[in-house]
Amino acid sequence: MNKSLMALVGAGFVLSASFATVGLAQAEQTTFPSPNRRGDFNARNANTFLSETNGLVTWPTWQVVSSDGELNCRQTPNGRIVRVYFNNRDIVHAELRGGNAFVTTANGSPWMLTRDRCYVRANTQYIRPVWQ
Predict the structure, then answer these.
(1) Is the separation of the CB atoms in 102 and 110 below 8 Å?
(2) Burial of 106 from C-beta contacts in 10 A (0-12 / 13-18 / 19+)
(3) Do 66 and 113 belong together in one domain?
(4) Which of 61, 63, 68, 126 is 20 to 30 A removed from 102 (C-alpha atoms)?
(5) Complete DSSP assignment for 53-70
(6) Which residues contact 12 (CB under 8 A, 6 or more apart)?
(7) How far apart are CA 58 and CA 115, in angstroms?
(8) Which structural domain, as residue segments, surrounds residue 20?
(9) Are residues 63 and 107 in the same domain?
């Protein structure tokens, strides 16, 4: 086989292996969020989704699991209800601009800002992360 062709084939293998390594590294860095012992999600345990532009950001998709079938989305944490999400129908999308969608109230309760510009309580009683 021609030396030039062998060099190109060898370079292509190295380049392919490099891309595979980068893809594998990104997949390994994205981990499913795990709540803390109180069932809360926050920036520490739910900013696990690897974004190409912002690094680790809030997990993007969440399913409503509220026991009464509804999840209130509020203008501010503990504020006026502006929208209601429903179990088995709605997926809640975290606001990813800025990377961190979580705020914590004075009593220590974390809330997640949604793409609908309202807040939901970030606890396993109300939401759970899902692949989408």
Answers:
(1) yes
(2) exposed
(3) yes
(4) 68
(5) TTEEE--SEEEE--TTSE
(6) none
(7) 12
(8) 1-30
(9) yes
Confidence at residue 103, expressed as pLDDT on a 0 to 100 scale: 95
Phi-psi region of 52 (alpha: psi -120 to 50; beta: other; left: phi over 0): alpha
Residues 38, 19 within the same domain:
no
pTM for the complete prediction? Answer: 0.76
Going by C-alpha positions, the residue among 82, 54, 86, 50 that lies closest to residue 68 is 86
Same-domain status, 44 and 69 = yes
**Distance from CA of residue 96 to its chain's centroid?**
8
Cα separation, 78 vs 62, in Å, equals 20
Domain count, the chain: 2
Of 99, 49, 87, residue with least CA distance to 120 = 87
Q: Among all chains, which residue has been given the structure tokens 């803390």?
A: 36
- Measured from the Cβ of residue 54, the count of other Cβ atoms closer than 10 Å reads 15
pLDDT (tens digit per residue) in 87-114 = 989 999 999 988 899 999 999 999 999 9
